[in-house]
Amino acid sequence: MISPKKYAKPAKSIPKGYKTANEFFDFVFNDKDMIWMGQNTNHLHDENEIMDSMMSSIKKRDYNKYPPPEGFPELKRLILEDLGLQNGFEILITAGGTESLYLCTNDILAPTDNTITCDPGYLIIDNFASRFGDHVKSIPIYNEACGYKLTPQLVRENIDDNTKLISLVDPLNPLGSSYTKEELKDFADLANDKDIYLLHDITYRDFARNHELMAKYAPEHTVTVYSFSKIYGMAGMRIGSVIGVPEIIKSIKTIVINDLGTNVVSQRGAIAAIKSKKEWLARIKTITRSNQDIIKRAVDQVENAFLPVYPSDGNMLAIDIYDTGVSPLDISEYLLDKKVFTREGSYTSKLFGDRYLRVSFSIPKEHVEYFAKVFVEGMKVLRDSK
Question: What is the DSSP string of 160-209?
């Protein structure tokens, strides 16, 4: 009998009434009235070139053939141009940012190496790093003193001779904190001095007010993870990439999972998405920034609730309700009954999951207004019931 391997696992609590996480997600996915604020997905695209390109690909039956194993050259070129990393960098197309993270940790880490991540953070990285390295050191960053992010100083205080990888999700899921140019340069000096790799996950980059690329300051020590799930609104298509200097990408290619290539229809949509980006990006950013203002006003109505990071540089933020006496799980289940899907803090934190509710806001304004209403009502109902 095969024994299950024991790795660090994301803390995915299952709501009452469901036997498995898959059963729960099947329910929320198929409920057409559900307002989707639980997975940082983007629901603000109209029918546009992205959809048209994928429909055209299907009608031409492109899916009958395997695509180029490393990705369509046009898509690879467009991503590098989008990032301004055309010179001295190579790229591999993957089935989403998550596969990119898996490949990076697999390729970089040896059994004696350790990884530094942060809590709160994207816990799947801890999972992957614990598979291929010795251990993961997850540094608590849920405090104002460090700006709710993993700082170079915190890394220096926790680094040792076996540290090989530092994870920087930027902007950070779930808080929306991000890095300045000065901070990234400091990380670059650290990486170069200690011969450590920096895993720069830029999934939420295009929602940020300002954003810098780690690869520009430490190219030899940086792997950049790029995703089409969020700003491009293509989460269900599972398409992304990993970018690095030729030596890094050459090594990663030796352990690829999809050796017959990544989804053809997804790649066609991704090409159209980058080409049309200038036509819709400003509109989406305007809506998301306005939406988080609506959430801020609602939170301000709840005594002892607050936003640790505001404004968020992502399309999500955390609402700290610890001092209200209401638990994140209770308010998330209340909201689910009102057809609003959110995530309690335990999904992204082992240490602080009892403090906050994470909500994403790249959805229509009227949906955010409805959330704001039922959130304030729900907090009062739950508090009064104590």
Answer: -TTEEEEEEESSPTTT-----HHHHHHHHHHHHHHT-EEEEE-TTGGGSS
Nearest-angstrom CA–CA distance, 206 and 285:
8
* CB neighbour class for 266 (10 Å; exposed up to 12, middle 13-18, buried from 19): buried
Give the 3-state secondary structure of residue 262: coil
Contact between 29 and 351 (Cβ < 8 Å): no
C-beta of residue 227 within 8 angstroms of C-beta of residue 63: no
Supply φ then ψ for residue 96, to 5 degrees: 100, 160
Q: What residue has token string 């709160």?
A: 120
Question: CA 287, CA 169: separation in Å to the nearest integer?
Answer: 23
At residue 118, the 3 state secondary structure works out as strand
> Residue 17 has what pLDDT?
82
CA–CA distances in Å: residue 27 to residues 17, 19, 35, 130, 146: 11, 12, 13, 31, 39
What SS3 state is found at 242?
Answer: strand
Neighbours of 19 (CB within 10 A): 8
> Does the pLDDT of residue 386 top 90, yes or no?
no
C-alpha span between 120 and 175 (Å, rounded): 8
Two structure tokens written together for 228: 């089409």
Bridge-based pairing state of the strands 343-344 and 135-140: unpaired
**3-class SS of residue 146:** helix
What is d(CA 296, CA 375) in angstroms, rounded to the nearest whole number?
Answer: 12
DSSP per-residue letters across 14-49: PPTT-SSHHHHHHHHHH-TT-EE-SS-------S-H
Q: How far is CA 169 from the centre of its chain?
A: 7
Residue 352 neighbours by CB under 8 Å, 6+ apart: 119, 120, 140, 142, 345
Listed residue (304, 318, 260, 250) closest to 67, CA to CA: 260
- The number of CA neighbours under 13 Å toward the Cβ of 172 is 27
What's the full length of the chain, in residues? 386
Residues 260, 266, 270, 271: is their CA dihedral positive or negative? positive
What is the DSSP secondary-structure string of 260-280? T-S-HHHHHHHHHHHHTHHHH
The pLDDT tens digits for 47-105 are 999 999 999 999 999 999 999 999 999 999 999 999 999 899 999 999 999 999 999 99
